[in-house]
Design goal:
Number of helices: 12
Structural class: alpha/beta
Strand content: 15-25%
Distance between the termini: 13 Å
Oligomer: single chain
Strand order of the largest sheet: 10-11-12-13-9-14
CATH topology of the largest domain: FAD/NAD(P)-binding domain
CATH superfamily of the largest domain: FAD/NAD(P)-binding domain
Number of domains: 2
Largest sheet: 6 strands, antiparallel
Order of helices and strands: EHEEHHEEHEEHEEEEHHEEHEEHEHHH
Number of strands: 16
């Protein structure tokens, strides 16, 4: 029994470790240092190239719950991170070079793991986990295009902000689809002419993140909303904020402008701002977008970003077990499946390793329940709307709500975390015993 793992980032490392622990031989391919990426500077496995923080640790935070679940599943990344942690308040942060070196040494000493320093340009035959991250090489990207179809691979990621449903002021909003087609699919935020003009002025004057060279050619095909707005005060009214086909039931008239919010998860706890891809700085997004009347108290669970990020349209091509639908011996893990964040990437690596081990051993295994952080992430990347799929971090809004009423948001989140850890422990005892 052998599984090939392509990519030595956080996801690839976790996949290899999960496989080796249950007696499956692993060949882990990492092209660095023979071929470097624009972002990496060493040949170590699991090199973190952005922030050195892995996020909060409290169980009242989404990041804390996800880490607790990963530790329950014996995460190598978190074991090393705890060992080399640096002071960071309530967050877990690491010395990035020491962390990467320690992870590399740990995997090099793991029985059953062979680390091969060469570039993979084609998808190998047999069981394989593709965990090449957002900087997948052009050659392997072409092979993935051939596998998934060109329409299912994206090279740049322009995302809109997402807000929690509970923070939307529904007294100022109304639910409807344009021209009444499609049912009540959107939450609509009407704006008067005065409100719109104040919003437009703030938007065009807001501070943006400087462009990278690779982004400059994107704007005609994926224009940030602030770039559209700079073309004139009426541009948005004929674009993403057009009010045609919508009548505000409170006034019986068509609004001057309308911001539409689209449901972003099955539980209807998250909504994205339609057409609001942006490169405004995060603080500016909070300030300017909160000027939209029904979002004056909005809780932003994710801000909009525009950056290079190779990822597949996972809901169109992957099973919940991270297996490619048409060729189940191929699995994907990490940012390439459409998750954001270090821990989210590592968590999918753990699961890809578990699912691959079950596959090569001929033993069926169920994914973790939807009430867990990891289970909800797997469900998101395999069941989200493939027509509007965007990468995402784990947030509490992905979990089914607690049925009993809990007034405090902190206590509600702690209750969600306790339920998740209890049910993941039960899943672990039931399912992982088969490996």
């Amino acid at each position: 029994m052998e599984v090939k793992v392509i990519g030595g980032g956080l996801a690839g490392v976790e996949a290899a470790y999960a496989l080796a622990k249950v007696g499956v031989k692993v060949k882990l391919y990492e092209m660095r240092p023979k071929r470097m990426t624009p972002a990496h500077s060493t040949g170590y496995l699991a090199e973190v190239v952005c922030s050195n923080s892995f996020g909060a640790t409290s169980l009242s935070t989404a990041s804390g719950l996800l880490k607790a679940e990963m530790e329950l599943l014996d995460s190598l990344v978190l074991k090393v991170a705890r060992k080399v942690a640096v002071p960071a308040g309530q967050a877990l942060a690491v010395d990035r070079e020491v962390f990467a070196r320690e992870v590399t040494e740990a995997l090099e000493s793991q029985p059953g793991v062979e680390i091969i320093r060469e570039e993979v340009r084609d998808i190998p035959q047999g069981p394989v986990i593709i965990a090449t991250g957002p900087l997948t090489s052009p050659e392997l990207s072409r092979a993935i295009v051939e596998l998934t179809g060109r329409e299912n691979l994206f090279f740049y990621d322009a995302t809109s902000p997402i807000v929690s449903a509970s923070s939307i002021d529904m007294d100022r909003a109304f639910v409807a689809s344009r021209y009444g087609k499609g049912g009540s699919d959107y939450i609509n935020c009407p704006m008067s002419e005065e409100e719109y003009m104040e919003f437009w002025k703030a938007l065009v004057e807001a501070e943006t993140v400087p462009l990278h060279d690779f982004e400059k050619h994107l704007f005609e095909s994926c224009l940030p909303i602030e770039e559209l707005a700079r073309r004139g005060p009426q541009t948005l009214i004929f674009g993403p904020l057009k009010p045609v086909g919508l009548t505000d039931p409170k006034t019986g008239r068509r609004p001057y402008a309308v911001v539409q919010l689209r449901q972003d998860n099955l539980a209807a706890t998250l909504y994205s701002l339609v057409g609001f891809q942006t490169r405004l700085k995060w603080g500016e997004q909070k300030r300017v977008f909160s000027m939209i009347p029904c979002l004056h108290r909005a809780e932003f669970v994710r801000y909009g970003v525009m950056h290079r990020n190779t990822y597949i349209n996972s809901p169109a091509v992957l099973l919940r077990t991270l297996q490619f639908r048409k060729r189940p011996e191929i699995l994907f893990a990490g940012q390439i499946v459409g998750v954001e964040g270090y821990m989210e990437s590592a968590a999918t690596g753990i699961m890809a390793g578990i699912f691959a081990a079950a596959m090569v051993k001929g033993r069926g295994i169920e994914p973790p329940p939807l009430t867990t952080a990891i289970g909800s992430l797997l469900h998101y990347v395999s069941h989200a709307d493939w027509r509007n799929f965007q990468p995402m971090n784990f947030v509490f809004g992905l979990l089914p709500p607690i049925k009993r009423k809990i007034r405090s948001r902190k206590e509600r989140r702690l209750a969600l975390s306790r339920r998740a850890l209890r049910e993941l422990e039960e899943w672990k005892l039931r399912e992982l015993a088969r490996l």
